[in-house]
Structures are given as structure tokens and as C-alpha cells.
């Protein structure tokens, strides 16, 4: 069994016994206390070992019962990748417009002198080692309300336990921050105790059963009301169109929110299951902050970075799905030909291309957009790739890319000013970057769309639409309703 350490002064290479062996944890934690004493700082210890592939939703539910703290869920069932975390070894909290850059610096600092053990070569390639999970607000310069309490401008969590899987490989990572005076034997005992509880819970677990559409249909009635009456939102859209025609900017994305309530508390675990089933190509996510969960199923990748290669996409321009195959095809063809939607889409392609040109040595943009067909809506999508210049991580890419004109507007500065002035909505983490970052600059962040903030029996859901010179307020309103349906159905509402 190979154990790989980071190359720093405190570490030595050695072969070790299986990690479920208490002595192994004692030895590693003791080594960390010595390192901490020598360097006068806490040392990050991260130990990853293989485990069987489980349904990530099962782990999410079991983590709730282990009472280890807040949970995080991230999965895209189409590519069989998932990350499920619980508790926190440490967190990075940042504020203000520099929130991403400050988080990147803190992450670099935390990684220094880390003891990183990988107890097998047969582990998920990109998620083994310490992985931070979290996200960022859409905009730091809007008024923040109490709605988003617990969701700061920037938050990256190093979970205590992380289950991660990639196709046929899965692993568990245990993270700890160890100081010179830490009782390392006690810390090792705690880890072993937690692992025993997890093993017992997995043994006793029943595989999650799929929620049938019939069951979902029987779900309780949801009371839904607009944060801003529909007619007023349409007037906002009309005003944005006037501004665009007057030359203030070329595109702006206006969002709206709805409040949803039912008698019982919403079942976040069930919501994730429904979202994963209905949107296998979407990033299904949940981040818990105390009693609140920010949950969603977004089709939009902001950036994925693997071994210096980054992948992103322009996603903008929408049409409904058809009721029949013929109608669906017609809607798709109309979307591909629509000048209004092409224009809305091209702002995103150009902006992403320009942002990547400074970060990457080479950038590839697909020749023409294709259709991305989701359950109830279809979009124009252009895949974009690039080779990151050395020394850049995914966080630098986020800093340059966010907000793309798919969620902000074009040009960026006047469009954002207009959102701040006219939208009257605290977007919080909606439309912000959400995802994970691992070692070596690898990671993946999505744009947190088709999402909502759930607390007890209430939820606030968000959706936005790209407004251009020939936008029609009524059509944009209908489009926003289609986007809201994702979370309404996810919460168990109308089918
Ligand atoms: C802003 C949202 O969607 C964006 C992504 C795809 C299509 C969009 C559009 O056609 O307007 C939006 O740019 C949202 O879902 O809230």
C-alpha cells in the first residue's frame, strides 16, 4: 500500500498499514503535531482511502444522522461524479470584491506543509487529497439582506469527511487541522469512532429507491407567491429594453424570485433525489448552513479544470420543449435560427473567449452553438476549452469569468450597475459560482442557476432571463416560469 506525502520539510515517505488501523492515525497525527511545533502553525492532514461506490444521496442522508455538522452535495449523474462532504476541518470566509482572489491566497497558505496521504493508487483521480467545497455570491456590491445570512461573499469549506466518486472508483477523505498541543491519540480515537459509525450506517442502509412521478404528483400543494408582482417584473424588463435601445448597454440579465411554502418542512434529501433523476446532465448541489440549504440543478458549467486544461461553455438563449417530437424539433430549429437568441448567446461566447485569452495559452471555441435539451427547456450551448498558463488555478479562472453575460450582461460594468439599481432582489449565491477545488489547481465550478434557498417549510427560488433590444416582457416572464419549474418540481410541487 503506497502512501504519498507532499514534498515538504516535515514529511517523509514511508509505507503504512491500513488506515482503519488506529495506530496509523496516531502516527500521522503525531507527526503533524511535531510539524506544527516546528513551524509554529497548524498543519493540515488529509488522508484518502478507497471505499466501495455508493449512491451519493445515501451518503448525504447518512451524514445527516452522524451529526457531524453541515453537509455539502455535488453530483452530475450523467458523468457519475459526486462529492458529498460533512463537517468542517476548517473554512475560508472572504468578503468584498476581492473575495475569490483572497480565497485563492488562503487556500495556497493552508496547503503549505500539508500532510497528504493517499492510501492506494486506485482512487478518483481529481478529488483525492484535500478538497474545498463552496461558493461565492453573485455580486458583492448589492445590498445584502438577512435572507442570505450564513452565506458570505466567499466560502470554501474543507469538510471533516468527504465521500467522492468518479465512475467505478470511490474514496473517503478525512481532513483535520492539527496544532502542536493537540492530543493526537484522542484525535485518532475520534476519527476511528466516526469511521466505525459510518461503516455501521452503511451496512444497515437500504439503497435509495427512485421517486416515481406518481409519488411526486401526490406531493403536497405548494403556496407560491412572487417577490415582485409579475406585472412589475415585466415593466422592469420593458425599462431594460428601453435602456438597451438608448445605448446604455447591449444585454442585461434580470432575475425574479418567488417564495414557496407548504405545511411540512421541505425534504432536502428527497429534493436532491428528484433533481438528479429529472436532470441527469445538470450539476445537482446543496450546501447547508445551519437550518438553511441552498439547493439547485444547474445546467451551466462555469469552469472545470483538469491537469491544466479548462472546459467551460457559453449557455444563453432559450426555448420551451415541444409537446411532441416534431414540435420539439421545430422549437429547437427556431432557437438555432433566432437572431434575438443568437445575439444574446454571442455576447457570452465573446466575453468568455476574451477572458480565457489572457489566462490560457490556447483557446478553442466550437464553430456554432448546439442545442442543450433539458426536461422542460432547451438552450443554445457553445463548448469552450483552453490550456491554462502555468501558475493559474481554477480560482483565477473564476475570478476572470464571473459573471459571464449569461447571468450579468454586456458590457459587464453598465449591465451590473443596472442590475444593482433596477432588479430589487438580493441574489445572494443565486447565479454565483458554486463547486469545489482540489490540489494542483483542479476543480469544477458551476453557475448556481435553477436554484433556491430552503429553510424549514419555506423556500425562495430564483430565475433570470437575458434581455436584449428585441426582448418581449411577456415571453421573458414565461421563460422565467419554465426555469422556476425546476426547483418547484424538485421540492415536490406540480409536475
Ligand atoms: C439566468 C438563468 O439562465 C441563463 C442560462 C441559460 C439561458 C439563459 C437565457 O436564455 O436567458 C440565461 O442566460 C437562469 O436560469 O436563472
From TrEMBL:
Keyword Lipid biosynthesis found: no
Molecular function terms, GO-annotated: isochorismate synthase activity
Reaction catalysis annotation: chorismate = isochorismate
Domain Chorismate-utilising enzyme C-terminal: 231-483
EC main group: isomerase
Record key words, sorted: Isomerase
EC numbers for this chain: 5.4.4.2
Listed GO biological process terms: salicylic acid biosynthetic process
Family to which this protein belongs: Belongs to the isochorismate synthase family.
Protein name: isochorismate synthase
Organism name: Dictyobacter kobayashii
Amino acid at each position: 500500500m503506497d502512501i504519498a506525502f507532499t514534498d515538504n520539510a516535515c514529511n517523509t515517505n514511508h509505507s503504512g498499514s491500513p488506515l482503519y488501523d488506529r495506530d496509523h492515525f496516531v502516527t500521522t497525527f503525531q507527526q503533524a503535531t511535531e510539524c506544527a511545533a516546528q513551524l509554529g502553525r497548524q498543519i493540515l492532514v488529509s488522508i484518502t482511502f478507497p471505499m466501495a461506490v455508493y449512491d451519493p444521496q445515501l451518503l448525504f442522508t447518512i451524514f445527516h444522522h452522524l451529526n457531524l455538522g453541515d453537509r455539502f452535495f455535488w453530483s452530475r449523474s450523467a458523468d457519475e461524479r459526486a462529492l458529498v462532504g460533512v463537517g468542517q476541518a476548517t473554512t475560508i470566509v472572504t468578503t468584498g470584491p476581492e473575495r475569490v482572489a483572497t480565497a485563492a491566497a488562503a487556500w495556497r497558505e493552508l496547503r503549505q506543509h500539508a500532510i497528504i496521504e493517499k492510501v492506494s493508487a486506485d482512487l478518483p483521480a481529481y478529488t483525492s487529497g484535500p478538497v474545498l467545497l463552496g461558493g461565492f455570491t453573485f455580486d458583492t456590491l448589492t445590498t445584502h439582506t438577512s435572507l442570505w445570512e450564513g452565506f458570505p461573499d466567499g466560502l470554501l469549506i474543507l469538510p471533516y469527511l468527504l465521500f467522492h466518486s468518479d465512475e467505478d472508483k470511490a474514496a473517503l477523505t478525512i481532513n483535520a487541522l492539527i496544532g502542536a498541543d493537540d492530543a493526537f491519540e484522542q484525535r485518532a480515537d475520534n476519527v476511528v469512532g466516526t469511521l466505525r459509525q459510518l461503516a455501521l450506517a452503511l451496512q444497515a442502509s437500504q439503497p435509495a429507491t427512485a421517486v416515481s412521478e406518481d409519488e411526486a404528483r401526490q406531493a403536497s400543494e405548494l403556496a407560491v407567491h412572487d417577490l415582485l408582482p409579475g406585472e412589475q417584473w415585466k415593466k422592469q424588463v420593458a425599462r431594460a429594453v428601453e435602456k438597451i435601445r438608448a445605448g446604455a448597454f447591449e444585454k442585461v440579465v434580470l432575475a425574479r424570485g418567488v417564495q414557496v411554502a407548504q405545511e411540512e418542512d421541505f425534504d432536502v434529501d428527497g429534493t436532491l433525489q428528484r433533481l438528479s433523476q429529472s436532470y441527469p446532465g445538470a450539476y445537482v448541489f446543496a450546501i447547508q448552513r445551519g437550518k438553511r440549504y441552498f439547493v439547485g440543478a444547474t445546467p451551466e458549467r462555469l469552469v472545470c479544470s483538469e491537469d491544466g486544461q479548462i472546459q467551460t461553455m457559453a449557455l444563453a438563449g432559450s426555448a420551451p420543449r415541444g409537446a411532441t417530437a416534431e414540435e420539439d424539433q421545430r422549437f429547437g430549429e427556431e432557437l438555432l435560427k433566432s437572431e434575438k437568441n443568437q445575439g444574446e448567446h454571442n455576447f457570452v461566447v465573446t466575453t468568455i473567449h476574451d477572458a480565457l485569452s489572457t489566462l490560457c495559452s490556447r483557446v478553442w471555441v466550437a464553430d456554432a452553438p448546439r442545442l442543450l435539451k433539458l426536461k422542460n427547456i432547451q438552450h443554445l450551448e457553445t463548448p469552450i476549452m483552453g490550456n491554462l498558463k502555468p501558475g493559474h488555478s481554477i480560482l483565477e479562472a473564476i475570478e476572470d469569468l464571473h459573471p459571464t453575460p449569461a447571468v450579468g450582461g454586456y458590457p459587464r460594468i453598465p449591465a451590473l450597475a443596472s442590475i444593482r439599481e433596477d432588479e430589487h432582489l438580493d441574489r445572494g449565491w443565486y447565479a454565483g459560482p458554486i463547486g469545489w477545488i482540489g490540489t494542483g489547481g483542479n476543480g469544477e465550478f458551476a453557475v448556481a442557476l435553477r436554484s433556491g434557498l430552503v429553510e424549514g417549510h419555506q423556500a425562495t427560488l430564483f430565475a433570470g432571463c437575458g434581455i436584449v433590444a428585441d426582448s418581449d416582457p411577456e415571453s421573458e416572464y414565461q421563460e422565467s416560469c419554465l426555469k422556476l419549474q425546476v426547483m418547484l418540481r424538485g421540492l415536490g410541487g406540480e409536475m
